[in-house]
Amino acid sequence: MKRKKRVKKDEVVAQPRFKDIETNRLLKGIGVSGGIGVGQAVIIERLTIDICPRRILRPEDIPGEIRRFEAAVETAAEHLKSIKRGIGPQHPLGNHLYILDTHILLLQDRMFFEGTKRAISSERQNAEWAVSETITKITSAFDTIEDEYLKDRARDIHFVGERVLRILMGIPSESKIHQLPPNSIIVAHDLSPADTAQIQREHVLGFAIDMGGRTSHTAIMARSLKIPAATGLERISREAQTGDTIIIDGSTGIVILNPDADMVFRYRRRQEVYRKYQQSLMAYGQLPAVTRDGSRSISITANIELMDEVEMAINHGCEGIGLFRTEYLFMGRDSLPSEEEQYETYSKVLRNNVPNPVTIRTLDVGGDKLASTFGISPETNPALGLRAIRLCLNRRDLFKTQLRAILRAAVHGHCRLLIPMISCLTELQATKELMREVKRELTAEGKPFNEAVKIGMLVEVPAAVTIGDLFAKEVDFFSIGTNDLIQYALAIDRVNEHVNYLYDTLHPAVLRLIRQITIAGQAGGIPVSMCGEMAGDPVNIPVLLGLGIDELSMNALAIPRVKKFIRSISMDECSYLTMQAFRMQDAAEIHGLLESWIRERFPKDYFLDQT
Amino acid sequence: MAGGEQLLEKTLTVTNQLGLHARVATMMVQTLRNYTSQVYVIKDGVEVNARSVLGLLLLAAAPGSEIVVRALGPDSTEAIQEISRLIQDETQEES
Fold it and tell me: Strand A415-419 and strand B46-49: pairing?
C-alpha cells in the first residue's frame, strides 16, 4: 500500500475542512475484533429520533397522515424481508439473522403500530413526531429492566423506529451501506443487525462504533466477518465526518481521527508488517509439520463444514480433513436429506485429493435443533439430552441412511468415520452392529461400498476419557473434541456470559484428561488426533506435542501459522514445557508459562493472538 | 380436554438461559399465527398479549421467573402446549 492517498474516480472527494482541524485525534474504545484498518470514514445513521419535524395536524389531515404512516411501515417491512431474502443460510452471519424477523414483528406490534396511530389521531401529531414519541415511550419502559440482555432490546425497537422515520422523511435507508466506496471505515452510533448484514465485505476495512461492548451485535458480527472493530467509542459518530481519514486498531480499541501523514505512515507500516507476516506464513502451509529436531511429525488437517471450504483448506496446506461436519446437510429444512443427496456430497469431498484421510463425523446435533423434523418432545437440558450418537441410535432410519451414504461414497477416496459423543461401550457396539447390518444390505443390493472404512470416536464426554483404555480396543482412532470436552469437564456453558470466563483450554483438569486419553491411545496402538479450537492456537501446542498428540485438525486459516510454529520448536522444549505445566496449579499460571516462553523464544513472531 | 371455548391457565417457569428473550418472543408470535385463541402472558400481575413481541420483552421474564399463560378459544390447549414448549425448551440462543 502506497503512502499517498489515491482517489478513485467514483469516490466522493471529501470537501476540504477548516485549516485548523485537529489532527491525530485519539479516541479509546474497546477492541472487539482484531486487526488494523486505515481508510475513509463513512458515517451511517446519524439520524436520531429527536431531530424529526414536528407539527400539529389540521383535523382533516389526520386520515391521510395515518395512511402515510401505514404505508411507511409496509415499506419498512418489505425492506427487511428483502434484506433477509438476499442473505443465504450460509452467510457468515446466518445465526444472527432471526433478529430481522424480530424487527418485522416489532413493526407490526400493536404497541408501536396502534400507539403511533393513536398519537396521530388524538394528539394530532404528524407521523414523524408520533413515531418518535411512541418509540421514546417504549424504550423508556425498557430502562427499568434490570436484566442486561433484555434491557438491550430497547435498541431493537429504536432501530425499527428509525427505519420508519427515514422512510417518512424520504431519507434513503440502506443506500450507503450497500454502496460503500472501497476502503471504507464504517462509523456509526450503533449499527442495526440489518445494516451489518448488508455491508459489502470487500469494501469495509473497519467498524468504529459509539455504543456497545464486547458482546454487542456489532462486535459479534465483526468477528464473524473478520473485520477490525472498536466499539464503545461514545462520540465517534459525532466527531467524524464522511471522508475523514481514520485509523482503527481493533486489538487495542484505539481509533485515530484525521491522522497526519506520519501517523498514517506508521500504522500502514504496522499493518504491512502484519500482512507480510501473514503472507510469509502461507509458504509454511506447504511444508510438513516436523519439529525442528526432526524427531516428530504431526499431521495437520482442517475442520470443514461446507464443501466449498475444501479448496481453501488445501491452499492453506491441510494434509487431510480432520473433521467434516455433516450437520448443515440436515439443518434449515423440513425433511431429512436422502441417501443419494448425502452420497453426492460426501463423494465430492472425498474426490479431492488430500494425502491423509477425510474424517466424516456423523450427525452431531441435539434433538432440539431438529425438533420440527423429528417431533421430539422437549428436554429440560438438551446439552445432556438426546443428541449426537444418542439421537442417531434412537432414530436408526436416519443413522442407517447416513452410514449407507458414507460407506458408498468411501469408494471414491480415503475416508474415516467419526462418531460423536460416545459415552459408553454399548453405544459403540450398537454403532458397529448397525454398520455390519448396513454392509450386509448393501452387499445384498449389489451396491459398491468400501468395506474397510475405519471407525473412530470423538472423545468429548469425560466418562469416555476415564475408560479410554476400554475404548482403545474397540476403535481405530481417537479424536479429542476439545470444545465439548472442556464444557462438560469444567461444567461451563461457553455461551453463558456469566460463566464463560471460567472456560480455559489450559485448565490443569483439561490437560490431565488429554494426557489420560493419549496414554490410552498409545497403549492401544491407535492414533490420537484433536479437533476443536484448542488445536489451532500455538499457545497450546508445546503441551499437546509433549503429550503425544498425532494429528491436529483446525480452521484452515490457522494452518500456516501452526506449521511454522511446530517447525520452530523441538521435542525437548515441548517435553520440558509439558513437565513444567503439569507442576502448576491453575490455568493462569500455565498460560503465563507458555506465553512468556513463546514471547521470549520468538520475539519477532506473531504466534500469540494478543500481539 | 376437547375443544370448546375453554379458558385455560398454566403456570410455567422460564428455564432457558437468556430468559424470555428476542428469539423466543419472535418464535412465540410467529407460532401463534397458527392459532385462533386469545393468549395472554402474565408475570407479577402484569398481563400482556402473547402476540406482541414488545409486550413479551417488557415482561422482563429473566431465567427462573414464573409466568402464567392464559388462553381462551377453540385451540387454547394446543396454543398453551406450544408456548410452554418454546419457553422451556428453546436453548440455542445467542446474545
Answer: unpaired
Q: Which residues of B touch A (CB under 8 A)?
A: 15, 17-23, 25-26, 29-30, 49, 51-55, 57-58, 60, 62, 85, 88-95
Pairing state of beta strands A36-44 and A184-188? Answer: parallel
- Could you list the residue range(s) of the whole structural domain that residue A193 is in? 25-47+175-259
- Integer Cα distance of A153 and A171 in angstroms: 24
Kindly determine whether residue A102 and residue B25, on different chains, have CB atoms separated by under 8 Å.
yes
CATH number at residue A86: 1.10.274.10
Distance from CA of A276 to the nearest CA of B (A): 35
Cell of A250: 481493533
Q: If we measure between CA atoms, which residue out of A356, A357, A354, A374 comes closest to residue A366?
A: A374
The Cα A54–Cα A305 span in angstroms is 53
User: Does the predicted model carry a pTM greater than 0.90?
Assistant: no
Q: Say if residues A208 and A239 touch (Cβ distance below 8 Å).
A: no
How many other C-beta atoms are found inside a 10 Å radius of the C-beta of residue A367?
23
Residues of B in contact with A499 (CB under 8 A): none
Identify the bridge partners of residue A399 per DSSP, sorted by sequence position: none
Residues 378-437 on A with a CB inside 8 Å of B are 378-380, 382-383
Instruction: Tell me the per-residue pLDDT of A419-452, one tens digit each, with 9 for 90 and over.
Output: 999 999 999 999 999 999 999 999 999 999 999 9
pLDDT at residue B92, rounded to an integer = 41
CATH number at A255 reads: 3.50.30.10
Residue A18 lies inside a defined structural domain of this protein: no
B93 pairs with which residues across the strands?
A: none
Please name which of A609, A589, A593 lies closest in space to residue A601, comparing C-alpha atoms.
A593
- Look at residue B95 and tell me if it is in a domain: no
Q: Which residues of B touch A105 (CB under 8 A)?
A: 26, 29-30, 53
Q: What is the pLDDT of residues A156-170, one digit of tens each?
A: 888 899 889 988 988
Is the pLDDT assigned to residue A12 strictly greater than 70? no
How far from B35 is each of A107, A378, B69, CA to CA, in Å? Answer: 21, 20, 15
The span from the CA of B85 to the CA of B95, in Å, is 20
The CATH number given to whatever domain includes residue B31 is 3.30.1340.10
Output DSSP code: residue A210. S
Task: Give the mean pLDDT of B4-10.
Answer: 77
What does the DSSP assignment read for A301-343? Answer: EEEESSTTHHHHHHHTT-SSEEEEE-GGGTSSSSSPPPHHHHH
- Reference A544, options A284, A291, A278; nearest CA is A291
Of the candidate ranges A89-93, A199-203, A524-528, the one whose mean pLDDT is the lowest: A89-93
Mutate to test the interface with A, among B16, B51, B52, B53 (most CBs of A within 10 A): B53
If asked whether residues A314 and A438 sit together in one domain, one would say yes
Cell representation of residue A33 = 475484533
Give the residue among B25, B35, B91 at the shortest CA–CA distance from A104.
B25
Asked if B19 lies within 8 A of A99 by C-beta distance, the reply is no
Q: Give the three-class secondary structure for A104.
A: helix
Residues A553-578: tens digit of each pLDDT: 998 878 999 999 999 999 999 999 99
For residue range A366-418, what is the model confidence (pLDDT) as tens digits? 766 666 566 667 777 878 888 999 999 999 999 999 999 999 999 999 999 99
Q: Which of A143, A168, A193 is the last residue of a domain?
A: A168
Residue B50 lies in a domain: yes
How far is residue B33 from each of residues A98, A157, A378, A459, B28, measured CA to CA in Å?
17, 21, 21, 43, 9
